[in-house]
Amino acid sequence: MQKLPRSFYARDTVMVAKELLGKYLVHRSDDVEQVARIVEVEAYLGEHDLASHSSRGRTGRTEIMFGPPGYAYVYLIYGMHCCMNVVTEPEGHAAAVLLRALEPVAHVSSHTRGPGLLCKAMGIDRKLNGHDLESDNFFLGALPDAEPVSIVAGPRVGVAYAGSWADELLRFYIRDNPFVSGGKTLRKPSGVIQ
């Protein structure tokens, strides 16, 4: 497996989000290598995106989003679930891609349909916030002979507070993949885009 280079992340967030589909998340801990394929993501475009954490400006929580691309932004929601994002675009832009669902490949036995569940299954917690995804123990990679995927776009989940940004088609997933998270937005997708 080839580790994704920093230049992969230092691009347009929507492009990165779509190209993350079919790539692999690898977490090595306690001599165990967990591997899962990324099948669903959401793009958060920066400070102007009212659904993004960075829309409230630079804070202790969002500092990682303003940093260089290719780092993990891991945060706690509802006081109990971790969610993992991948920081994208040039430093200072504060954009990221949320990982929403994974297809287990190796040493992953728990549910991975949903951002909190996938973090729990992959042993991802806030200790990995700010972790360099160029490391050898926690990274995203690709197989050199990977087949292209068919991508479906729809609105993001749980961002009704963001006004018109709630309707933006910034959730992407692999068409017909059984590991995509549930929800009515997926039962009635907006369309296949690739």
UniProtKB/TrEMBL annotation:
<dbReference type="Pfam" id="PF02245">
    <property type="entry name" value="Pur_DNA_glyco"/>
</dbReference>
<comment type="similarity">
    <text>Belongs to the DNA glycosylase MPG family.</text>
</comment>
<dbReference type="GO" id="GO:0016798">
    <property type="term" value="F:hydrolase activity, acting on glycosyl bonds"/>
</dbReference>
<protein>
    <recommendedName>
        <fullName>Putative 3-methyladenine DNA glycosylase</fullName>
        <ecNumber>3.2.2.-</ecNumber>
    </recommendedName>
</protein>
<dbReference type="InterPro" id="IPR036995">
    <property type="entry name" value="MPG_sf"/>
</dbReference>
<dbReference type="InterPro" id="IPR003180">
    <property type="entry name" value="MPG"/>
</dbReference>
<keyword id="KW-0378">Hydrolase</keyword>
<dbReference type="InterPro" id="IPR011034">
    <property type="entry name" value="Formyl_transferase-like_C_sf"/>
</dbReference>
<keyword id="KW-0227">DNA damage</keyword>
<keyword id="KW-0234">DNA repair</keyword>
<keyword id="KW-0326">Glycosidase</keyword>
